[in-house]
Amino acid sequence: MARLELAADVLVVRLAWWERVVARRGSLRVPLGAVAEVSVQEDWWRAVRGTRVRGLKVPGSLCLGEWRHRDGRDFLALAPRRGPVVRIELRPTAPFSRIAVTVSQASQVWREAASRTGATGTGASDVRPLSASGPSSRP
After folding, report:
1. Would you list the domain boundaries of the chain?
2. Under a CB-based contact definition with an 8 Å cutoff, are residues 102 and 79 in contact?
3. How do 51-58 and 72-78 pair as beta strands?
4. 96 three-class SS
5. Which residues of the chain register pLDDT less than 50?
6. Cβ proximity of 54 and 28 under 8 Å
7. In a 3-state reduction of DSSP, which class is residue 37?
8. 7 Cβ partners below 8 Å, 6+ apart?
9. pLDDT score recorded for residue 51
């Protein structure tokens, strides 16, 4: 399954080989300055909005690829029952509105992001700014 990594000033979503084939894209790289909010959610379906444009959807099992909605595009790599979802809201300058990834180490990813940016809180469903530049303009 996809992995989230924080490298220098970049958030990287690394996809497995089969995920790259299905999503028709390589790893996703987003500057940390483009990140507005981060939350950890237990309910994977709360991260899904819009309709699938590119990728694969297997109801109840997998959402992988690009989803389009009225506010823009989201990138999803969700596998229900595999762990919590890290939901990352991005600023308007980013290529996507939201990135949502199922990761087994969600609290570890949150702690690392918080330590790099000074954000606080670790509980599930907490939504905290990842950067100090203010809240996202997207709902």
Report:
1. 3-117
2. yes
3. unpaired
4. coil
5. 118-139
6. no
7. strand
8. none
9. 87
Sign of the Cα pseudo-torsion (106, 107, 108, 110, in order): positive
The kind and range of the H/E element at 115 are helix 106-117
Quote the CA–CA distance of 123 and 101 in Å, as a whole number.
Answer: 17
Give the angle 122-99-114 at the CA atoms, nearest 5°.
Answer: 30
Q: What is the pLDDT of residues 67-101, one digit of tens each?
A: 899 989 999 998 887 788 888 888 888 889 999 99
pLDDT of residue 123: 43
Q: Can you tell me the distance from the alpha carbon of 103 to that of 33, in angstroms, rounded to the nearest whole number? A: 22
The β-bridge relationship of strands 62-69 and 51-58 is antiparallel
Supply the pLDDT for residue 34. Answer: 86
Sequence-distant (6+) residues with CB within 8 A of 81 are none
Distance CA 121, CA 37 (A): 12
Angle at 101 between CA 76 and CA 8, to 5 degrees: 115
pLDDT confidence of residue 74: 93
